[in-house]
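Q: Hi! First time asking for a complex rather than a single chain. Here are the components, and I think there are two in total. Is that enough to go on?
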Amino acid sequence: MVSSGFNKVISAQRKVIAERFKKIKHKIVIMSGKGGVGKSFIAANLSVALAMLNRKVGIFDADFHGPDVPKILGVRGNVLRVGPKGIEPVVAKHGIKVLSLDFMLSSDETPIIWRGPLKATAIRQLLAEVNWGDLDYFIVDLPPGTGDEPLSVAHETPGLDGIVLVTIPSEVSLLDVKRAATFAKRLNIPILGVVENMSYYRCPICGHIEYLFGKGGGETLAKKLGVELLGKIPVDTKINEANDKGQPYVELYPESDGAREILKIAKKLISKLEAVDERTTS
Amino acid sequence: MVSSGFNKVISAQRKVIAERFKKIKHKIVIMSGKGGVGKSFIAANLSVALAMLNRKVGIFDADFHGPDVPKILGVRGNVLRVGPKGIEPVVAKHGIKVLSLDFMLSSDETPIIWRGPLKATAIRQLLAEVNWGDLDYFIVDLPPGTGDEPLSVAHETPGLDGIVLVTIPSEVSLLDVKRAATFAKRLNIPILGVVENMSYYRCPICGHIEYLFGKGGGETLAKKLGVELLGKIPVDTKINEANDKGQPYVELYPESDGAREILKIAKKLISKLEAVDERTTS
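A: Yes, that's all I need. Here is the structure of the assembled complex.
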């Protein structure tokens, strides 16, 4: 009886989710095989780039262990409010709607010891209750790896367009990303392309270029998967500075190599996904 | 009935684990709040440093999503053999005994989609069945974050001496590590100290020093926790090169700043833990 009631709740939640997601045109998940490759930085700055290109954007920071998106977008410390249409996401600059597990934590010091099944329930409940409204793009910052959480998010988000895989150039990390790609294939979600982060570093004094974390990994991976290498973003101390300030790098340093590259990636995604729109609506 | 049988299995396994761990003098877990901070690199190279200082060392690579330790120690592609005393760990250079989930994967392409409860069972079973023999040091490379796996490993490994927290200097990452520290406190395991990785970078051409990922984070964290900052390891392209070659950095480039720092950290851990031995045995 309890179990059957629970199943009814789940199926009711899924109906609500499907209804809410009808108003969202494109859904992209940002994924990486391991943490620390700058996935959240890419997800947050891609959202800003899309908004700068006049798209209505929402971002779901689904990383339970280190929800960094609010910090990067300068909306940390906000709390979620409930309105007549459900939970209202926090609105950042450019009208970007932000939902993060960070908004539900009591303090910096609170660790999130949530067991796997609880996480899946929490994600489904959130997706059912948040009022995203009409959006052009819905960006999901998945937890790193190939475990429970990315699996749950992929299962619960209807109509995903595809995955953007973030990697760094070194070989050790590529192993992990290959696993992530297989994971994506098993879930039957297309890979839209690969972004290589921390590609190189240019010494600001002498101009010497160093490949700090190896070379060519993103290209090799993209070729291996038969997908496009969407862009290569260098190591830049300004990235760290912007993240810490809570001002998006792509907007604060638009002339930097990295920001130009992120804008280029956003344009590529738009042309990939909106070309499909035109074909299906004409 | 099934449940009670299962509980009997668990309690039998825990007895075997306790028996095996009596022969291991010190157990240290290497932990980080998030991935990609070089935790596996530190864990593997600390093991080598301890072995170079004539200690008998075993390392358990408990990272389900990206088991990198075998690659770094040059024993990738090995398989586990079963002997009369149980599963025999793979033996790397310096006699270091290595157990990794990587030895149980079929290929680079296989993702590990294991659900939370399965992971806890797998860890307990492994710890019960592996014949470590007599060891001075048992190093556990925990999965990143504050979720199911680090919790399981900490619960299942008897008599842990403490945690070494690995961080990078940037502020965003410190948030995560603070969560990890609270997690450690909740589990009642002492923190032996903080290691700051990717602390700085020295341009090999002009000598310019740049703080690529921020500055001072490790020190701030250590102070905040009231523990020692055990060492600061720079960004060094040789680290990536050594990892890719499967030759430990600390041994391949012993004169580098990073290798000297890792040896210093190993000596500090020895003096912390073996001083306790002397006090308790005298």
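A: Chain A has ten helices and twelve strands. Let me know if you'd like any chain examined more closely.
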